[in-house]
Amino acid sequence: MKRYRGYILDLDGTLFRGDQAIPGAQFFVGQLRKKGIPHLYLTNNSSRTPGQVAEKLRRLGFPADAEQVFTSAQAAARLLTGKGDRPRVYAIGEEGLLSALQEAGCRLVQEKADAVVVGIDRQFCYDKLKRACLEIRAGARFVGTNGDRVIPSEEGLLPGNGSLCAAVAAASGVNPVFTGKPEPLIFRYALERLGTSPEETLVVGDNLETDIRGGRDAGMDTLLVFTGVTDPGDCHSSEIRPTHALEDLRDWNFF
Length: 255
What we know:
Elements: E1 6-9, E2 16-17, E3 20-21, H1 25-34, E4 39-43, H2 50-59, E5 69-71, H3 72-81, E6 88-92, H4 95-104, E7 107-108, E8 115-118, H5 126-137, E9 141-144, E10 150-153, E11 156-159, H6 161-172, E12 177-178, H7 184-194, E13 201-205, H8 208-217, E14 221-225, H9 232-237, E15 244-246
Parallel strand pairs: 1-4, 1-13, 4-5, 6-7, 6-8, 8-9, 9-12, 13-14, 14-15
Antiparallel strand pairs: 2-3, 10-11
């Protein structure tokens, strides 16, 4: 088996479920740290800042700091400011998105925007939809942090950011550019943060459609774990095939 020099780790369903660490996950991350293997926590959740994500990881027993976390909100911010621009942005989202945009140099505005960025927003309403639609129809670029239409919760499946973006797309007639998993863009940014090449990096996750598809399309090997949204039967019926598949992270051999 190949020895990997860098790891990109999904969070929910891979390392933890809700507020509970998944058995074996803490040991897995501990081994990465012990062996000095660079690793990055990669999440489509745009509602939290990297610092808040790292705080939750530490609370659940995973060593983490903000620099080891990269979010779909940061990917959106980097997309808009990658050439040194300071665009005017109308943002629909929560603290994680607003903070990422401002830290990258975006100017948050309510009108005459260069771009409209949509992240998960549990206060989404008609007025926000109207403003986004008007700005996009006036020429603003439309960016979505991720296209997940539903998100799992204790109540069941709830509307995800993809559902919000679908409403904006329907009203504006323009489809968004997404920056989160499975888009290759966020994986490219993750590799730059890690300092490793695609060939020597492993993507670890529980979701065939986001983690495994995204890692594959970005040229990386992938490890699928059956601790989240995917079970072994899904692999047989999908055209997306992981490089490796395990019941959980306890079975991984680092060599």
